[in-house]
C-alpha cells in the first residue's frame, strides 16, 4: 500500500470538517461522541475528504477509549462496538464514492493516552506512567481495532518515546500493519526527545509499515522527513496541522500551503495529508498538485 510508486494522499482533520458541518465537538469525547449521536455526520465528513482526492480515511476513534466511554456509562461491549463502528462508517463513505474509481484505504486511528485526558496532554507527553502501564491501557482498544477490518492502524500524535515503545510493542504482538506518527516541536518530540531516537523505536519492526509526523507545524515537516529517512528504511507519512497555535482556541495565522506538498514529496514523503484545521479544500489542493506533478 505505502511502498509502491507515487504519493498517497491522506485526509485532513476529521473534526475540522465535522465542525464545518455544524457539529458541536466541545466535549471530552471530541469527534468520538458522534459515533453515538450522529454517525451519518461521520460518514459525510469522510466522504468529503474522499471526494477531495484523499485515498486514506482516518477513523473517528482518535479520542475513543474504554475509559472515555465508561465515563458516559457505556460498558466494554458497547465501547468495542463503537470502535468497530468507526471503521464501518469510514467504509460506508468509501462505498459511497466507489464509483469515482481508484483504490481507497481505511486507517483506524489510535490516539495517545493524553488525548483521552482531554486537557492537551498529548502535546506534552510525560504522563507519569511507565511503558508497561501505557501498554496495558492501550491494549484493549488496539485489540478491537486490529480485528475491525481496517486496512491499517494509524498510531498517531504520539508525544514521547515511552508511549511509542508501548504502542509499537502492541502492534508487533498483534501482528497488524500500522504507521506511527509523532507530534513534534521542531526537531524533537513534544516531550523533548530527539527525533532520531524517536524514529529508531520502529526500526526493525516489520508491522510498522511507515513512520512520520502529524499535528505539527508545516515548517517542521521537511526536517522530520529527512531525519526519518536517515534513521529507518520505511515510507514516511506526514500530515501537519494548519500551523495555527492551540491555546484552548486556535490563534495565529494558518500556514498550511498545498504547494508545500511538492517539497515534502521531493524530500521523500510517501503519504501526505493534513491534521487539525486542514479541511477538504486544502486536501483537494494537495491532491490536484500531486496529480499534476506525478500523473497516475
From TrEMBL:
GO molecular function terms attached to this record: S-adenosylmethionine-homocysteine S-methyltransferase activity; zinc ion binding
Cofactor entry: Zn(2+)
SUPFAM superfamilies xrefs: Homocysteine S-methyltransferase
Cofactor info, note text: Binds 1 zinc ion per subunit.
UniProt keywords, alphabetically: Metal-binding, Methyltransferase, Transferase, Zinc
InterPro entries in alphabetical order: BHMT-like, HCY_dom, HCY_dom_sf, Hcy_S-methyltransferase
Stored PROSITE patterns: HCY
Pfam families per UniProt: S-methyl_trans (PF02574)
EC number from the UniProt entry: 2.1.1.10
Keyword Transferase attributed: yes
GO biological process: methionine biosynthetic process; methylation; S-methylmethionine cycle
Start and end residues of each Hcy-binding domain: 1-290
Chain positions recorded as Zn(2+) binding sites: 215, 275-276
Protein name: Homocysteine S-methyltransferase
Source lineage: Bacteria, Bacillati, Actinomycetota, Actinomycetes, Pseudonocardiales
Amino acid at each position: 500500500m505505502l511502498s509502491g510508486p507515487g504519493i498517497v494522499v491522506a485526509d485532513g482533520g476529521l473534526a475540522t470538517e465535522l465542525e464545518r458541518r455544524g457539529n458541536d465537538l466541545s466535549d471530552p469525547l471530541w469527534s468520538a461522541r458522534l459515533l453515538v449521536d450522529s454517525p451519518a455526520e461521520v460518514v459525510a465528513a469522510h466522504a468529503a475528504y474522499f471526494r477531495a482526492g484523499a485515498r486514506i480515511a482516518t477513523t473517528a476513534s482518535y479520542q475513543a477509549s474504554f475509559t472515555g466511554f465508561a465515563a458516559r456509562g457505556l460498558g466494554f461491549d458497547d465501547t468495542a462496538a463503537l470502535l468497530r463502528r468507526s471503521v464501518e462508517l469510514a467504509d460506508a463513505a468509501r462505498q459511497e464514492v466507489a464509483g469515482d474509481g481508484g483504490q481507497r484505504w481505511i486507517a483506524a486511528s489510535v490516539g495517545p493516552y493524553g488525548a483521552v485526558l482531554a486537557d492537551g496532554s498529548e502535546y506534552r507527553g510525560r504522563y507519569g506512567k511507565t511503558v508497561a502501564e501505557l501498554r496495558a491501557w492501550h491494549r484493549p482498544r488496539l485489540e478491537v481495532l486490529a480485528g475491525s477490518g481496517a486496512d491499517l492502524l494509524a498510531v498517531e500524535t504520539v508525544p514521547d518515546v515511552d508511549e511509542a515503545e508501548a504502542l509499537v510493542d502492541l502492534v508487533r504482538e498483534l501482528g497488524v500493519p500500522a504507521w506511527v506518527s509523532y507530534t513534534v516541536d521542531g526537531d524533537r518530540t513534544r516531550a523533548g526527545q530527539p527525533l532520531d531516537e524517536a524514529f529508531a523505536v520502529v526500526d526493525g519492526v516489520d508491522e510498522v509499515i511507515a513512520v512520520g509526523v502529524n499535528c505539527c507545524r508545516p515548517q517542521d515537516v521537511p526536517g522530520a522527513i529527512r531525519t526519518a529517512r536517515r534513521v529507518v528504511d520505511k515510507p514516511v507519512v506526514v500530515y501537519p496541522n494548519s500551523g495555527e497555535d492551540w491555546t484552548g482556541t486556535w490563534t495565529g495565522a494558518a500556514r498550511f500551503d498545498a504547494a508545500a506538498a511538492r517539497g515534502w514529496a521531493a524530500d521523500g514523503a510517501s503519504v501526505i495529508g493534513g491534521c487539525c484545521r486542514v479541511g477538504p479544500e486544502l486536501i483537494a489542493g494537495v491532491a490536484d498538485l500531486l496529480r499534476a506533478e506525478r500523473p497516475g
